[in-house]
Amino acid sequence: MEYLPRSTAARIRCQLLRLHERLLGRDTFQLLDRLHPIGSDISETRLAAARDLLRHARSEIPFWQSRLKRIDPDVFTWDDLDSIPVLTRGEVVCHREQMRWLGPGKELVHKSGGTTDDNLTFYWGRQRQSWDRATRMRGLAKLGIHPGDRVLHIWPREPRSVAGRFRRGIRKLRDTVVADPVVDPRPWTDASLERLLKVIDRFRPQAIIAYPSWLMRIARFMEARSRRIEGIADIILTCGEVLFDHQRTYLEEIMQAPVFQEYGSQDAGLIAHEDSDKVLRLNPEPMAIEILRGGRRAEPGELGEVVVTHFFTPRMPFIRYATGDVARALHGDVSSLTSQPAICPLPEGRTSDLLLSELGELVATRPIIESLMETTGATLFSLYQPNPESIHVLCVPQSGVVSQAIANEVLQSHLGKTVTVIVQQGESFQELRSGKHRFVCSPVAASKIAHDTFSGQELSRSWPQQLEPAGWHRG
Fold first, then answer.
1. Dihedral of the CA atoms 33, 39, 44, 50 (nearest 10)?
2. pLDDT tens sequence across 433-454
3. Cis peptide before 284 (omega within 30 of 0)
4. The pLDDT of residue 121 is above 60
């Protein structure tokens, strides 16, 4: 694939971006040039990368020396993954320093942008960063957006501090030069949304990247004020949250631009991107993906936790890392993910984004949320299930109200007639630091599927998004 910006200005920005990456010690463009053509067989390349990571981890890092004692990296095959214990978030929290390689090279400390604000601090290096950036560039290029094209990111900025202000100043200068700015419109007000629309109109981005819930706020504001921005962007790319079909349809109608999604996390890496046909496809070169249920490979069609082994994390290897995300398995084993284009199972959300039926069975919430959106027109609400017998529907008037009758009909049809449905209403949702919105929080579902039972970390991810003021019961 060729990565050719369309205009002279974009080509100049692309060269400046190449220089910027080299100055930071990132091999982004070298990797981008080496990424394999679609359909090529990369099985040997991936296996060699996995062996290199295992060899490094076993010989250099105390935590992995004992954990990999049964593994011989020189003869490792994908079948041997089963003999490596799943790495949980709780273990990373408890053993972070023992998992860290103290060798040469730039060490970076990073904090994930967790949906539930229990961010994970971990170490990484320029190599992992380079792979993330290169795979995103490839994903965008498949949609016609090339390095140097105008891209607007609408998402949270760093917390305000003296050091943060300095970094923001440097990054703002860089973003202006390479036409890759970040805008954080919070706190959400009519004035801040007006300013954002003016920025979009003035900048004329070729791509907008944002959380789906943020884009929905913007689109509802545009619709309420009959605002249209001609050619708002060539594409809109969502990330950080599950993209629901009803959201995609609404955003494309209001913003008059095709909507695509990418899937990944800051701790696990960029896992998949949608192509122009809107099929989510894996980035197989830097990682192996498994869908596990209770430590075993999930059967095709079965819900399981997404487990990632990233080959290029020497600073702090993430080997069989349980991401906390859930998907429905499409493949029986990881060895089938050896060539492009491998289809990525559609993410269903976090382990606490599932619900539990009256029979104690896990229920994916995508069809439930889609049905509530379609039947009520509500765009922001939250389902909280503190126990298998009851579920709370939290909603706010400005984003659409879910009636008791519809809530009963939709939820009981999926969960069972004996489940008690309680609708609560408030003025607004309390903002999470991450800026994301939680459509579902179910501690009881998380305990059924999450691999992280070691320290209780995963249950803290089930805290609901609260109403302001405290919700009152309806119906």
1. 70
2. 788 899 999 989 988 999 987 5
3. no
4. yes
Q: What is the pLDDT of residues 375-420, one digit of tens each?
A: 998 988 999 999 999 999 999 988 888 999 999 999 999 999 999 9
> Three-state DSSP class for 396?
coil
Lookup: tokens for 157: 């900025």
Return the CA Rg of the chain.
22
- Sketch the domain layout of the chain as residue ranges: 8-345, 351-474
- Residue 38, classed as helix, strand or coil, is coil
Provide the token pair at 76.
């490792």
**What is the fold, at CATH topology level, of the domain defined by 8-345?**
Rossmann fold (3.40.50)
The token duo for 44 is 């040997």
Across all residues in the chain, what is the average pLDDT?
89
Q: Which of 128, 464, 149 is nearest to 308 (CA)?
A: 128
How much is the pTM?
Answer: 0.92
Cis ω before 205 (30° cut-off from 0) = no
Residue (of 90, 78, 87, 128) closest to 106 by Cα position: 128
Beta carbons within 10 angstroms of residue 246's beta carbon: 17
Was domain 351-474 assigned CATH 3.30.300? yes
Burial class (CB in 10 A: 0-12, 13-18, 19+), 189: exposed
3-state helix, strand, coil in the chain (%, to 5): 40, 20, 40
CB 196 within 8 A of CB 218: yes
Instruction: Tell me how far apart the alpha carbons of residues 447 and 386 are, in angstroms, rounded to a whole number.
Output: 12
d(CA 99, CA 28): 25
The C-alpha atoms of residue 221 and residue 194 are separated, in whole angstroms, by 9
Q: Compute the residue count for the chain.
A: 475
